[in-house]
Amino acid sequence: VELQQSHLLLSTFLKEQLNDMEQIDRVGLVDVHTGLGPKGFDTILSGGDADTLLSILQDDKNDEDIKKHIASFGTAGSAGSGYDDVVGDTATGIGSLFLPSTSYLSMTQEFGTVKAVFVAQALREENAAYWYAPWNRIRAAQRVRSAFYLHDDPQWKADIVKRGADVFWKMHKYLE
Fold first, then answer.
1. For the chain, what is the radius of gyration of the CA atoms?
2. Which of 9, 19, 108, 172 is the most exposed place for a label (fewest CB within 10 A)?
3. Record's superkingdom (predicted)?
4. Pairwise CA distance, residues 52 & 105, whole Å
5. What are the beta bridge partners of residue 31?
6. Domain boundaries, the chain
């Protein structure tokens, strides 16, 4: 199986930085995505146990609120819709670097940007430019970037930093 360039770079980095991977007994991975779901809202996706995710992410202040953020891959009407058809992912690839006895927990945190139809439109335009209109590739690439990263929206950026840090530190606490 050939890895995507980003997965190859991450795997190489981890192997170089984690000197003795056989000694690692717990690993947590938060794979951050943008694009799908309501603008600025994060959906936590996992193929694993939703109750475990809930126990990690809940705190006294948001017991009910956090349930709105959790979905399984393939859940209709959520940011996870369509992911059930994906073959291969970061969680599986990175998880394979560790011993089977390693306690490994992964989740995807998907932050919404624009409506899904505009994300799809930007991706289709970029694909068409790649194959049929190479002179238009820069403009198409800029539209894809704008669909996945709201560079002129400080509130969107603040929402991502706030929720991203919250999930990171809760995962860290769980693994301690």
1. 18
2. 19
3. Eukaryota
4. 9
5. 108
6. 5-113+149-175
